């Protein structure tokens, strides 16, 4: 059986080690690599590059994973940055927006995590709360640090028609590391899960095989069977 080739959109990090003389490192969290390999996929890290190269990258993979990281720059949903926004990287945003467009155009599935879910929403015309303090109904702690990510800390409720509804109980707990959230949904996206305070915790578009989750299954899959099953679904069935 041919292994599905999973493109994981990479990030850049300026190393702190003096020996690297300020060189940048292209990386993705190891959890994505381990999880994809564990469920039978072949992971490829896609380095940030020129948007016009995105289509060629997507041609060479079967599915795309969008990982977490910096805040999405509000310029891409037509807002100015507000005081509580965190670090942004417009170069990364532009490249990943091009990857999303290419994947949809080539009918390749997308599995998006945390920032990745937020960017997928923005790519399809949606918007974000730049900080949860902008959301009047905020009651749940969505940034669980210093609690370790292997521990699930807050409840989510899964929609009956969620693509992963057969994997998760209707109500379950997930880990949580975000201070931004979806405000307005993008075109043809549906809410697949939400937290007790109404924050969108998963989105989907079954027709285009798009799935996004707000939590971090790549950090908890070694300890949580449902997160292992989620990766198996994303890699082999989505």
UniProtKB/TrEMBL annotation:
Superkingdom of source: Bacteria
CDD domains the record matches: GATase1_2
UniProtKB keywords: Glutamine amidotransferase, Transferase
InterPro entries (UniProt xref): Class_I_gatase-like (IPR029062), Peptidase_C26 (IPR011697), PuuD-like (IPR044668)
GO cellular component terms listed in the entry, alphabetical order: cytosol
Protein name as catalogued: Glutamine amidotransferase, class I
One of the record's GO molecular function terms: gamma-glutamyl-gamma-aminobutyrate hydrolase activity
Lineage: Bacteria, Bacillati, Bacillota, Bacilli, Lactobacillales
UniProt xrefs under SUPFAM superfamilies: Class I glutamine amidotransferase-like (SSF52317)
Keyword hit for Transferase: yes
GO BP term, example: polyamine catabolic process
């Amino acid at each position: 059986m041919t292994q599905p080739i999973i493109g994981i959109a990479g990030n850049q990090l300026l190393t702190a080690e003096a020996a690297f003389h300020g060189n940048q490192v292209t990386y993705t969290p190891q959890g994505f690599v381990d999880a994809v390999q564990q469920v039978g996929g072949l992971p490829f890290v896609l380095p940030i590059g020129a948007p016009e190269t995105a289509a060629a990258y997507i041609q060479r993979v079967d599915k795309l994973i969008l990982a977490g990281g910096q805040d999405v720059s509000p310029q891409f949903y037509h807002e100015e940055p507000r005081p509580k926004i965190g670090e942004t990287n417009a170069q990364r945003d532009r490249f990943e927006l091009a990857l999303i467009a290419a994947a949809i155009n080539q009918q390749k599935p997308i599995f998006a995590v945390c920032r990745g879910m937020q960017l997928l929403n923005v790519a399809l015309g949606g918007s974000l709360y730049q900080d949860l303090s902008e959301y009047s109904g905020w009651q749940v702690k969505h940034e669980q640090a210093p609690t370790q990510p292997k521990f699930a800390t807050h409840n989510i409720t899964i929609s009956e028609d969620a693509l992963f509804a057969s994997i998760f109980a209707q109500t379950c707990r997930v880990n949580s590391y975000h201070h931004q959230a979806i405000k307005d949904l993008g075109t043809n996206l549906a809410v697949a899960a939400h937290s007790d305070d109404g924050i969108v915790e998963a989105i989907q578009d079954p027709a285009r095989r798009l799935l996004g989750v707000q939590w971090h299954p790549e950090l908890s899959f070694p300890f949580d069977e449902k997160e292992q099953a989620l990766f198996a679904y994303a890699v082999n069935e989505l």
